[in-house]
Amino acid sequence: MANIYTAILKQDGDWWIGWIEEVPGVNCQEKTREELLESLGVALKEALEFNREDAIRAAAPDYTEEPIIV
Fold this sequence. Notes:
Shape: elongated
Oligomer: single chain
Largest sheet: 3 strands, antiparallel
Distance between the termini: 15 Å
């Protein structure tokens, strides 16, 4: 099941800028709205993977994982 995140988009002059509402630090700037949405998706995937790897590194070697539903 895919998680759903919220992109905040704004046109600023010739540029489109955007953020992922739920994940601080995930932001992009592109010339078109479509390019912005694609870049935000890539940046979000990379940020989530980095955070996942960082958490596992910090907890290793003895840790457990539990799903949390909000």
